[in-house]
Design goal:
This protein is of the alpha/beta class. The protein has 14 helices and 14 strands. The protein has a 7-stranded mixed β-sheet, with helices on both faces. A 4-stranded mixed β-sheet has the order 1-2-3-12. Helix 4 (111-122) packs parallel to helix 5, helix 4 (111-122) packs across helix 9 (254-263) and helix 12 (294-311) runs parallel beside helix 14. The radius of gyration is 21 Å and the shape is globular.
């Protein structure tokens, strides 16, 4: 053990972080996906989870997961390319592909791993990747790992993207990538225009539907909602949010999925998802297919709460979805507001840099379809009191 490195670098860096308002700790919660959580002994309404449809505790998912664990055990035991395969995985991939109106799909251990697989398979040092400035970290990391050149365009700014594409007209290979719903702002990408630019410049179009899957487009995501399923080349998503389980996926043409299966390092070199998780994801997908109105209910709830926050004078930063930020600016303001809301029985996330840009710390509400009318009253009252006591 190198005590000199530890004492010289790790100890002072940890102390500096611990004494800053950027320091993070794991919250003292149990059963963190539930509608109500116990936080340091107090029961709070959970507005911080990405369990958007409340499916993580649904009886269908629990039953399917239990049956799979009983039959197949608790681990896959290897990567999919060795022996870690199950018929459950192949069924899930087939149904995901159909649900997303694509030819094929590949399931990965997480949404993060899915983005790494996409870019290590499809991009290289001869590729320029045009990425929205607020895209998820997994997209950025995938691009960097691929060796491609990263070019960032201003958030949602298609004119800026167009100029950058013109500037890179001679690039051998071009990819445009965007989140469809942005995880910290709750706004949506202008996909129709982005697809037009992709076609005009011969660029592959990749989208991440992590926060749209299960919510928009009768559960199929923003791409399907806008009728662009034949125009977007690669769709990445996750089963860990609205689908209430775990794992990522990529849906695309057969040849694209073949490349990912053979070149995607995060897929090839990872132990496959266990059968209980695969079964829960499959049950969730089938539940969303059978109940396509769940996302629409969530969007109605979100509109009501966002309108209330706007009426109180809060800045919700252009959100149009179930993710509603409340701008605070400084880290300490966000942390103080979070604490006041906890006293009101509401658990919200206080999001600070580097997750968001410097000077844009915020509260982040993640609303969910299983909120009751009483819950909505509770949220409105809590934020009304916050406005009076903290944002006069």
């Amino acid at each position: 053990m190198s005590t000199s490195f530890f004492g010289k670098y790790i100890v002072p860096e940890a102390a500096k972080l611990r004494n800053s308002d950027s320091y993070r700790t794991i919250p003292p919660v149990d059963d963190g996906a539930a509608r109500e959580v116990v936080y340091s002994g107090a029961k709070l309404l959970n507005l911080a989870s990405n369990n958007y449809l409340g499916l993580s505790h649904h009886p269908d998912l629990i039953e399917a997961s239990n049956k799979a664990a009983t039959r197949h055990g608790c681990s896959s035991g290897a990567s999919r390319l060795i022996t870690g395969n199950f018929a459950l995985a192949e069924t899930l991939e087939a149904e995901l592909a159909t649900f997303k109106y694509q030819e094929a799909a590949l399931v990965t251990g997480s949404g993060y791993a899915a983005n790494l697989a996409v870019f290590t398979s499809l991009a290289d040092r001869h590729t320029v990747v045009f990425s929205d400035r607020l895209n998820h970290a997994s997209i950025i990391d995938g691009i960097l790992l691929s060796g491609a050149r990263l070019v960032r365009y201003k958030h949602l700014d298609m004119e800026h993207l167009s100029r950058l594409l013109d500037r890179e007209a001679l690039a051998e290979k071009k990819i445009i990538v965007t989140d469809t719903v942005f995880s910290m702002d709750g706004d949506v990408a202008p996909l129709a225009r982005l697809v037009e630019l992709g076609k005009a410049h011969g660029a592959l179009v990749v989208v991440d539907e992590a926060h749209a899957m299960g919510v928009l487009g009768r559960g199929r995501g923003l791409v399907a909602a806008l009728g662009l399923s034949n125009d977007v080349d690669v769709q990445v998503g996750t089963m860990s949010k609205a689908l209430g389980s775990l794992g990522g996926y990529v849906a695309a043409r057969v040849e694209t999925i073949e490349l990912l299966r053979n070149k995607g390092r995060s897929f090839i070199f990872s132990t496959a998802l266990p059968p209980a998780v695969l079964a829960a994801g499959l049950a969730a997908l089938r539940h969303v297919k059978a109940n396509p109105g769940l996302g629409a209910r969530l969007m109605r709830i979100s509109r009501q709460i966002r309108d209330h926050l706007d009426s109180l004078g809060f800045d919700t930063m252009g959100s149009t979805t179930q993710i509603i930020p409340v701008f605070c600016g400084r880290n300490r303001v966000a942390l103080h507001a979070q604490a006041l809301l906890r006293a009101e029985g509401l658990l919200v996330a206080a999001v600070r840099p580097p997750t968001v840009p410097q000077g844009t710390a915020r509260l982040r509400l993640s609303l969910r379809a299983d909120l009751t009318d009483d819950d909505l009253k509770h949220i409105r009252l809590g934020f009304s009191r916050l406005r009076v006591s903290f944002f006069p």
